[in-house]
Write the structure tokens for this entry.
Amino acid sequence: MNIDERIKQAGNEITRCREEIGKRIVGQTEMIDGMLMGLIAGGHVLLEGVPGLAKTLAIKTMSEVLDVEFKRIQFTPDLLPADLIGSMVYIQNTGEFTARKGPVFSNIILADEVNRAPAKVQSALLEAMQERQVTLGDATYPLPRPFFVLATQNPIEHEGTYPLPEAQLDRFLLKVKVDYPSAGEELAILKRMGKEKVIKVRKVLDSGQLKQIQEAAADIKVDERIESYMVSLVGASRDGNSSDHPFSRYIEYGASSRATIFLYRCAKVRALFEGRTYVVPDDVKDVAYDVFRHRIILSYEAESEELKPEDVISRILSSVPVP
């Protein structure tokens, strides 16, 4: 099977996933595409939005559409690392300790309200995300493949929360903002969900098919000029008070090298979504907001002018020449 056929087949499978998720979730295409992009690109996704916008429902629905194991972990201030990764348990009959694995040993993890748990719990999760393994006692246990974390957080609530440090945020592939639905979507939600009927979805994708989609995405071509364009975008966020980039006074710290790698991977997946075997500049622009949003730290001057990360990212995109 050549690359064109593989791209077409992958596109058909992605379309089936979207259609099944769409049976429950009205609109929110950016959120759904962000979750699928993270799954295919092999990274983790942070969803941020006010309560009641179907973040948790969308994640649970995606786990039902995929034929993989799913666990939900509700993060609370009294959660312990052992509640997440497991612990060593003493067996009285044998006089030995044995490993009891925690819920993190699953394919898809929903870390609900991840900013409600203290730092040591967040660190345990983020270490598992990065290393894809967990150490219990003297032994190290690999996590299953695929291993995909979807975390949620509420941007308007600060009491009783522990904000994720910037270094830990950088480990998320994407940070997706979940916005309110339109009036038409709100009406469709009312008609569909107001009756409290259980809407069933079917499994349409297993781990083997997912691996084939990931391989198809990896084979998508990226021209050297597009690669240089990605590097220029990341570099523009680090240039200090450059005369070429006057917006840089709004940036305290720029994007990391991890941002360059993730921008590359996500642009390939965006091309896959569009059914192309090659990446175009618009693919890079489309994914730049979700890749940069949590990696660019704004300066005091930006906060004083009430600028958001999206405003600064827009200025970066408009200032860097497109190949």
Observations:
- The mean pLDDT is 87.
- Residues 220-319 form a domain with the Helicase, Ruva Protein; domain 3 fold (CATH 1.10.8.80).
